[in-house]
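Re: your question from the hallway

Yes, I did run it. Sequences:
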Amino acid sequence: MLTGKHVVLGVTGGIAAYKACEVVSRLRKLHAGVDVIMTENATKLVAPLTFETLSNRPVAVDTFSRIESWDVKHISLAQKADVFVVAPATANLMAKLAHGIADDMLSTTLLATKAPILLAPAMNTGMWTAPATQANLETLLSRGVHTVGPASGMLACGDNGAGRMSEPEEIVEAIVKLLTAKQDLAGKKVLVTAGPTVERIDPVRYLTNDSSGKMGYAIAQAALDRGAEVTIVSGPVHIAAPVGAKVLPVQSTMDLYHTMLENAPLQDVVIQAAAPADYRVENPADQKIKKQDGESLVLTLVENPDVAKAVGQQKRPGQVLVGFAAETQQVTENAKKKLAKKNLDMIVANDVTAEGAGFGVDTNIVTLITHDELKPLPKMTKRQVGDRILDEALRLLQQKAE
Ligand code: PMT
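Structure:
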């Protein structure tokens, strides 16, 4: 499965270091090449010979003394890695990596690598939850470092809580995922719209809808994982944006309209999963509207521009435009009409009344409709839907390039 792939495994001085032996053993069974770098402290917990036997390779330690044949070892290992894993990753290692400190073989090699980095943190709960560690974690995540765990449970120090290193099989699963991820969108620019828009009634009230942003953010994450340069045009949501995406926040449909007219032409693929309000209040009040002494309050709503249609009107040759259709009846017929009216290449039809589909939930049930095909998909996670949409968008992109 991992033939030809090379893993560099850093082992730091946490009590979970012994579990790293099984990580090496599992990786070798998958035919990956493994080089192990240990910190001095790690060698006090597990003998380097154990890792040398399991990996069938010399182990690098901080003294530089064990291996004399390598020219500039930290650079050659940094370059050799297809993925660089640190298991266990102590609070100290995370702090060093976050701040660019390179004072031993492991931290030096880690700083020099261009390979994806995966950390399996392991430490006492107090250390894990310490603001300093959490700030370091945030910094590392924002730079695209991947993590697996930590799990919660009984720790070696007797505490019960978060900080236990993930099990070797989970760590290996995360490594396999990183090593086998498709990079078929590398070099492509993908813009995704997500979330609701809000239309002001007065300074404290607004009209909106139930969109959580989950669908759009899941597509954006899938595109990032496949190597795309991703922009999210996002209405107000309460979920974290995928690390690595450029986020352009919008409030109203008019904001979305202007942001999209400026940014959509720069993209290879535009996927519009947002739920923009079709109407806005004609005259939003400057001050909080007072009660009307029993009288009805009448709000006049005027139609917002159709953003997807406007983007469709300025479609560049070779560009792929994807829309969504949130329907409650005659799903396919209505979606097909939108496909044509908005000059889209594909529309993702979802019946938002179906159980496990549409607003707020983590799954969706959609039909991918292009001008020549109709593909109903079973219920799947929004992430899986995202990948299926991207598969199809890539096919259309390639078709246009022929
Ligand atoms: O965010 P979640 O909670 O995960 O929910 C996901 C979702 C249900 C919002 C998503 O799957 C979805 O269906 N999004 C489209 C919602 C919608 O506005 O559908 P529509 O059929 O009204 O619009 C059709 C298309 O035109 C959409 O691509 C929409 O973004 C776009 N549109 C709509 C109105 C408008 N004024 N301008 C637009 O560009």
